[in-house]
Give the backbone structure.
Amino acid sequence: MADHLRIGIPSKGRLSEVSSDLLSAAGLSFRRQERSLFARVRDMPIDVTFLRTDDIPILCAEGAIDLGITGGDLVAESGAVVVTRLKLGVGNVRLALCVPDDSDVKRPVELDGKRVATSFPQITTGYLAQHRATPHIVRLTGSVEVMIALGVADAIVDLVETGSTLAANRLHVLAELGRYETVLIQNPATPHGHIADRICRRLEGVVIARAWSLLEYNVPEEKLAEAEQITPGFNSPTVNRLEQPGWFAVRAMVKRSEVIEVMERLEQLGATAVLETAITNCRL
């Protein structure tokens, strides 16, 4: 196995499923036996290692694995010396400093000497030090939202997605410490750099493809220039003349998050046969 590249992914949880799905979409086919810590990728010199999510940055830095898929927040908290090769477009979260709705604390500096509960002591300490505050850090590994209600802390630093949990616990965001997402990391001294580059390029193709759709439509010649402004494409749209005089067929990549709005604008412009096609992989 020493001559194989090792890539570490979470052994369980939602991120485990996301990681396996991304690798499969990138053409890395493997099957994990029940409770096994390793799996061999078919037809490539690659082994997949199943690990605790928060151990992956350290194990990658120490050379136990060459590549790893984990949260960017965990990479930042660990302080591990690794190279972030690619943001994977999933698991987007923000790390926020939160206080009770009825708190007198209005600025981070006012937390000096107070208790702050968090699973991210390194990031929290560094951030508050920049604001001239030295709090008492209450280190936790589980849910921290209830710690203020339990009388354990005056404030918390935690990951926030929708904010509904904060509202349920009568908390609000005082400051944002950072935004993070799932990332592909690499040991800077890996001897398998060429294979790592192949994996990174394959994953990049999947990540970009999932962020875009292919839009096709027909448009009259007098509206073509305006339609091209609506759908400029990744570089530029593909335009072909139709047999029907005065009409053109247009194909262009459109950001998936904007597809519905773009289709409505094209329809209002007079475009017809507006079709969206999902892109599963690409090289751009």
